[in-house]
Amino acid sequence: MVNLIATQWHPLLTGLLNTILCSIIALVGSMIIGTLFALLEISENRVLRVIGRIYVEVFRNIPLLVITMAFFLIIPMYIAKINGFTAGTIGLTLYTSAFIAETVRAGINSIEGGQLEGALSTGMTYHQAMRYIILPQAFRVVIPPLGNQFINLVKNSSVLAFVAGFDLMYQGNLIANDTLQTIPTYFIVGIMYLIITLPLSYYMRHLEKKLA
Amino acid sequence: MKKLWHILGLGALLAMTLLTLSACGKSVAKQDVLAQDEQSKQITWGVKSDTRLFGLENIRTGRLEGFEIDLAKAMTKKILGPNGKCVFVPVTSGTRVPLLKNGNIDAIMATMTITPERQKQVDFTHSYFDAGQSLLVKKDSPIKNINDLNHPGKVVLGVSGSNSVKNVAKYAPKARVLQLSDYAQAMTALKSKQGNALTTDNGILYGMAAENPGYEVVGGNFTKEPYGIAVNKNQDRFRNKLNWALKKVEEDGTYNRLLLKWFGNVKGFNYQEMKR
Questions:
Q1: What is the mean pLDDT of residues B249-254?
Q2: Share of chain B above pLDDT 70, in %
Q3: Domain A2-211 sits in which CATH superfamily?
Q4: Is residue B22 in some structural domain?
């Protein structure tokens, strides 16, 4: 196994960096999109609510692999040329954002209605009340489930392997096929995912303690 | 800190389990495959199920069909007699060697090129089909041969685990190689313009060109890819028996009959050159 790391460190490192890059982009992107659609879902406006609902149900209920494949195969045919990494990252962002939207919506709903009324009665607009009163409290409540989503996101990034996104899993597949040392290769790949997910997991716990 | 030790402990446990599992794999290799097969009257072959002309699952009947399937059947009859049975296990370029090593299959006949690296892991019989690597492109494509791909920005599609992707690095080092999981996916990626050309062995490409009229095989063969049947190391009796059976089917004309059956109508295929 040491020998395998010694000879294959370069592709493994490239894979690790691509997985981290994809995860960071998807994490930030899905947080923003997810929060936006959570706000749509609880909106007073019926049309906005329906739009939010459709978005969440579509991306939450289609397998990630199908979404990614669609971006990898269909978009280049008709719209624009995008590579595997981009297709995978977009797919992962949209897929995760649907789950984050549901999580954030649950957080917002858990804040008592009186908070919003109170904020509005002090002269705040709806947007201000959301921005300064409701959302900060909602995020604090949903930190544990968000942590779950983030960890899932990192692991789900392995979908890039299917669209030649040069991530850790892709490189792992190639090394396993090349060296025919299947079990040690996937063992190393598993450890490398832990290198990303364990600190993330601990950071989310830390955040939970700090803010609770 | 205590938690960290727990995690390390779990990791160690996992590593030990894996070691035990790989040790089990080794004991499989020590058994005499030929003796077992002669007793059970069946040989388990690892074959392709997604490769037209070689091994393809017929969606309507659920049966595997192709040159390799027929050849495996003929060879099984030679080895085990008329009552000998074939069991076919579909494999991919990526899964075939692990499946052989852990004893799930007795032999691999799945468009597998004999290469020195693979010979370190498995043993091969004599070649049963002399393929060569070529290119599949869209009909009006400016790509005419492998040299046209040797430019930065050109993308070549291949299937991971196949020998052909490694050859691209040798013959067109400036091209970028995208490795996908199977031929169907690689073909779809070519159609959606994710790459300039799809590369693999000519026999497989002919099958794809026949299925997709807008595409053609160009540039001739730029490598030699002799296909061999792979068996586990230390199975010399089984390997010798397979070589003997291969020779038998070549001598009695079965080989040429199967070659004609599968490749006789394929445009660009030279029967006279390939017959034995």
A1: 93
A2: 89
A3: MetI-like (1.10.3720.10)
A4: no
Whole-prediction pTM: 0.78
- Structural domain for B37, as ranges: 28-131+226-274
Q: What is the distance between the alpha carbons of residues A56 and A75, in angstroms, rounded to a whole number?
A: 21
Query: Are A177 and B189 a contacting pair at CB < 8 A?
Result: no
In this prediction, the residues of chain A whose per-residue pLDDT falls under 50 are none
The total number of structural domains in chain B stands at 2
- Range of lowest pLDDT (A71-75, A155-159, B41-45, B73-77): A71-75
Interface check B274 vs A, CB under 8 A:
no
Q: Tens of pLDDT along A70-92?
A: 999 888 888 888 889 999 999 99
Q: Domain map of chain A by residue range?
A: 2-211
> In angstroms, rounded to a whole number, what is the distance separating the alpha carbons of residues A95 and A93?
6
The residue among B235, B237, B201, B199 whose CA lies nearest residue B115 is B201
Inside any domain, residue B138: yes
Model confidence at B184, in pLDDT bands (50, 70, 90)?
Answer: confident
Q: Based on the domain organization, do B261 and B127 belong to the same domain?
A: yes
Residue B45's pLDDT is 96
Q: Point out which residues pair with B133 in neighbouring strands.
A: B201
CB contact under 8 A, A177 and B161: yes
Q: Which residue in this structure is represented by tokens 């040299």?
A: B147
Spatial CA neighbour of B172 closest among B199, B192, B191, B194: B199
Q: Which of B218, B234, B254 is the last residue of a domain?
A: B218
B36, B170: one domain: no
User: Of chain B residues 8-67, which have a CB less than 8 A from chain A?
Assistant: 11, 14-15, 18, 21-22
- Nearest one of A161, A154, A153, A163 to A70, comparing CA atoms: A163
Assess contact for B179 and B200: CB atoms under 8 A: no
Has residue B4 been placed in a domain? no
